[in-house]
């Protein structure tokens, strides 16, 4: 599903954020990427929806080498990938409903489909009764769940989360991770960057470790 082959990434004027990374995340897997700040976790995630391109090596998603993906196919690639951020990036002047509906509006989904799909996604994250609320009136954990609903509303086969529990206490963090497990249980491939070692240990999924841009352990025990 997600394959990196000898991938290095050097930002303009910077040093190497990733260096010679080769690994494979299978369809339906749930994996954590760990490593200190600056280890290359975000860069790794950003390569997958083509928010960045590698300096060397190949990124292959669902059998497609992204270097050969034409520009007009990029929106299609991105529609298949749900992204979740630490700061959730919700629009504060829009309701929960409108935030979650946004990817569907952009994709041009017919209006009558919107309500059904948005409510199904809010139901999955347990926030159906908050659809008219504004993000600032919600707790941190609820805001993150809205971010997750927005990421899954178009039913992407891949979810990527960058420090999704960075601002949450341990109990809420675990709740968010269990939510990811539920999506994984229905076949979604999930990659989560996190440096919360205690939580990752408790969850017991594959753990990919980066250090200074290098792959220290690909965590593949199969
Ligand atoms: P992590 O997510 O593990 O903290 P990042 O992938 O964000 O690591 O960063 C890896 C390295 O790349 C760091 O040294 C960081 O400063 C550098 N870096 C990340 N993004 C950029 C950028 N847009 N321009 C220049 N350097 C960057
Ligand atoms: P419906 O078929 O009415 O949309 P589902 O219960 O199948 O209802 O899905 C409800 C919501 O849960 C979806 O809109 C989507 O947000 C999320 N979801 C369900 N299955 C998946 C999946 N395989 N991948 C991603 N998201 C999913």
TrEMBL record:
Write the record's keywords in alphabetical order, separated by commas: ATP-binding, Cell cycle, Cell division, Cell membrane, Membrane, Nucleotide-binding
Q: Which SUPFAM superfamilies match?
A: P-loop containing nucleoside triphosphate hydrolases
- How is the quaternary structure described? Homodimer. Forms a membrane-associated complex with FtsX.
Q: What is its main location?
A: membrane
- One cellular component term from this protein's GO annotations in UniProt: plasma membrane
Q: Where in the cell is it found?
A: Cell inner membrane; Cell membrane
Transmembrane segment boundaries: none
MF-aspect GO terms:
ATP binding; ATP hydrolysis activity; transmembrane transporter activity
InterPro entries from the UniProt entry: AAA+_ATPase, ABC_transporter-like_ATP-bd, ABC_transporter-like_CS, ABC_transpr_LolD-like, Cell_div_FtsE, P-loop_NTPase
In its UniProt entry, what is this protein called?
Cell division ATP-binding protein FtsE
Gene assigned in the entry: ftsE
- How is it placed in the membrane, per its record? Peripheral membrane protein
